[in-house]
């Protein structure tokens, strides 16, 4: 029997990228979020934590991923991992993303479920869906 018991307190997505500084700037400058923690490893590595509010895990099969990519971009473009961030003002964030020289994959569109979605690409090529709920 499945229940909605809260056994997991937090979801974190850990991105490993060769573009660490660019990714930090991407998050900080476009979403106006400062790092909440920065870690250094004994071997000279660096990790950075951004607190981003509530998290959920979406699990799609290939056909559903194809449907979402077709809806948001017009073709299958994302890999096995795509982030989706709910934002308060999609147009303001998209303006900053473009001003900061980041890649807009597809501009805002209304989804069949009533949200406004847009697709951007992070410095490491990661596909990121921005969505603003109309609820």
Question: Can you put this structure into words, describing what you see?
Answer:
With 135 residues, the protein is of the alpha+beta class. The chain has helices spanning 20-31, 62-72, 90-99, and strands spanning 37-40, 46-49, 82-86, 103-110, 116-121, 127-132. It has a single domain (20-132), classed as 2,3-Dihydroxybiphenyl 1,2-Dioxygenase, domain 1, CATH 3.10.180. It has 3 helices and 6 strands; from the N terminus they run αββαβαβββ. The chain has a 4-stranded mixed beta sheet with strand order 3-6-5-4, with helices on one face. Strands 1-2 form a two-stranded antiparallel sheet. Helix 1 packs across helix 3 (90-99). The longest helix is centred in the first third of the chain and has 12 residues, at 20-31. The mean pLDDT is 91.
Average pLDDT over all residues: 91
The quaternary organization reads as single chain
Q: Briefly, what CATH class?
A: Alpha Beta
CATH architecture: Roll
**SSE string, helix = H, strand = E?**
HEEHEHEEE
Our measurement of the CA-to-CA distance between the termini, rounded to an integer number of angstroms, reads 31 Å
The CATH homologous superfamily corresponds to 2,3-Dihydroxybiphenyl 1,2-Dioxygenase, domain 1
What is the count of β-strands? 6
What's the CATH topology name?
A: 2,3-Dihydroxybiphenyl 1,2-Dioxygenase, domain 1
Estimate what percentage of residues fall within beta strands: 15-25%
Return the structural class: alpha+beta
- Radius of gyration, Cα only, in angstroms? 16 Å
Give unreliable regions as ranges: none
